[in-house]
């Protein structure tokens, strides 16, 4: 019996759910596929992984596999497609990672810039804290509910027993006051 005939028999047995036929087909073609794959890609681990993945896919699809006249050609074509897909996928990941690290490098701040930004953030927090102290207790409460607790104006109105329009106007007035106070302080 020839190599091609033997693989044809294994293929049919595989289609009928014979796990031993899968292993026999795997063993019969493994080294041929490795040699072929290494001509496409020098990464032997990737080549071996793709071969294993191919046979796992065949086993998973065994119920829907069609009869094939040239099993070796079918396996080589399917393997080549999987290997190229995997190489393209890895290339995309590599490119994405490269872009991310480039952007991180561009956005990297010096130690002095980081200290300046931290100081500026602290100054802004202090100024905001001082400005909030100048609001009415009702304005402070509504600002807290709206921006720190994330409530809608309807929820604020329900909690504070006032109309939605009053809640909106109170928050609007508080923001206007805060803007004015923050612009005044250097």
From TrEMBL:
Entry keyword Transcription regulation: yes
GO molecular function, one term: sigma factor activity
Pfam families registered for this protein in UniProt: Sigma70_r4_2 (PF08281)
CDD domains, sorted: Sigma70_r4
RNA polymerase sigma factor 70 region 4 type domain segment(s): 126-178
InterPro entries the UniProt entry points to: RNA_pol_sigma-70-like, RNA_pol_sigma-70_dom, RNA_pol_sigma70_r4_t2, RNA_pol_sigma_r2, RNA_pol_sigma_r3/r4-like, WH-like_DNA-bd_sf
BP term (GO), one: DNA-templated transcription initiation
Keywords (A to Z) from UniProt: Sigma factor, Transcription, Transcription regulation
The family this protein is said to belong to: Belongs to the sigma-70 factor family. ECF subfamily.
Record protein name field: Sigma-70 family RNA polymerase sigma factor
